[in-house]
Amino acid sequence: MSQKNIKVSLIGNPNTGKTSVFNQLTGLRQQVGNYPGITVEKKMGICQLSKDKRATILDLPGTYSLNASSIDENLVIELLLNKKDENFPDVAVVVTEVENLKRNLLLFTQIKDLEIPTILVINMSDRMRVKGIDLDIPLLEKELKTKIALVSSRKNIGIETIKNLILNYETLSTEPCLNASSIDVDYFNNLRRAFPNQLLYKLWLVITQDVNFLNLERNEIKSGFTKSKNDLKRLQQKETIKRYQFINDTLKIGQTIDTSKATDIRARLDRVLTHKFFGYVIFFGILLLIFQSIFNWSSVPMDFIDETFTNLASFAKKHLPAGEFTNLIAEGIIPGIGGIVIFVPQIAFLFLFISVLEESGYMSRVVFLMDKIMRRYGLSGKSVVPLISGTACAIPAIMSARNIENWKERLITILVTPFTTCSARLPVYAILISLIIPDKKVLGFFSLQGFTLMV
Question: For every one of its 455 residues, what pLDDT tens digit does the chain have, with 9 covering 90 and above?
Fold first, then answer.
């Protein structure tokens, strides 16, 4: 018996835990590929909802709004506008994060205007008590005209609620949250009269974004409703303001934050980590710690590996029959492998520190901190992530540059990143430094070789 398949699009701002929700829903039933004609990763997975129904879940690239400023965001808009697309969703699941609900809801209200059945997922609910946040879910559901799932993907809370809401998506309201056309009543009324069979907000997105819409040519729509770039930008700003006014009014009655209960350790840390002076000191101190670890902390496992392969070569030389084959093994193969493996601890420490910086959220603070400096060189703070990631491997670092909105900044970052010292070059540098720079300690602790590598 064939199962009914529900197509679901998982949408949300970056860093809301969208991918974690995707992983919880799909488990190991995932496929990873690229969108046709472009190197932007897409993930698809299967979620079993009931005995006779399952969902195909598409994890779309993170986007802050439907006003596209990058290739990734443009892909989200093109899918949501094209009902003929094989992946056009039966239901959209918008993942938000409880600490930044106001900002996340902008995207939600825009998707609601597309009249697609939409579920609101509020993630990281385990942080509510720590932050002193309380939500009136029934009231928010009424004001936002949707169903809400309060979840914690980290603790696997509320995932079943999402599945049940997807299963019953046909009962969801497709009514928009607000009337966005009031930003210019005459303009939108004329647009509605010209295209009575088309959804008004979709027409607006076609005019303002570089996308195609069903069987209508973009020029056909724009010819009768031409506005200058400045006028369109002004209307977009008015739309954003109107949406935030609605969101503010909704959260005033649906959300309460008791700062006396909240623990503001993160806020205090942010003030220190992004300080205009101490922020840079901490950042360069962390970099110094990373490079010191490459020489100091990794020396123990490196010495062990070196001794092990030396003993193994001696053992082979002593116990194997004398001859060219034994010499090849004892003096060629074993020392050759040992000469490569010995640098694994240094590379491992480098990957470990980069992973810790990314997972802890410190890397996003670095982006904010370095933005002002990077602007002087025609880059943005986001360029720091590819440049630092380039110390691990230039290929994924260059791929991560796709999230930089400005094409010029993106291109410069892509061209500069290969000049960053990657892990493949690190062993060469380490060998040269070990041969040239004496193994001395500065202030009784800091390695002179580590200072050299950092410089």
Answer: 456 789 999 999 887 888 888 888 888 666 555 444 444 566 888 998 888 899 999 998 888 888 877 777 788 888 888 888 888 999 999 999 988 899 999 999 999 999 999 999 999 888 888 778 889 999 999 999 999 999 988 888 899 999 999 999 999 999 999 888 888 888 888 888 888 888 888 888 888 876 654 445 555 565 556 677 788 888 889 999 999 999 999 999 999 887 665 555 666 777 787 888 888 888 888 877 777 776 677 778 888 888 888 888 888 888 888 888 888 888 888 888 887 887 778 777 767 777 777 677 777 787 778 887 887 887 878 787 778 767 666 776 777 677 676 778 888 888 888 887 776 677 777 778 877 887 777 766 677 777 777 76
Ordered by start, the domain boundaries in the chain are 1-262, 278-436
CA nearest neighbour of 315 among 343, 301, 335: 335
Question: Between 3.30.930.10, 3.40.50.300, 3.40.50.360, 3.40.50.920, what CATH number should domain 1-262 receive?
Answer: 3.40.50.300
Phi/psi region, residue 145 (left: phi>0; alpha: psi -120 to 50; beta: rest), is left
Radius of gyration of the chain (CA): 28
Q: Give the length of the chain.
A: 455
Distance CA 419, CA 422 (A): 9
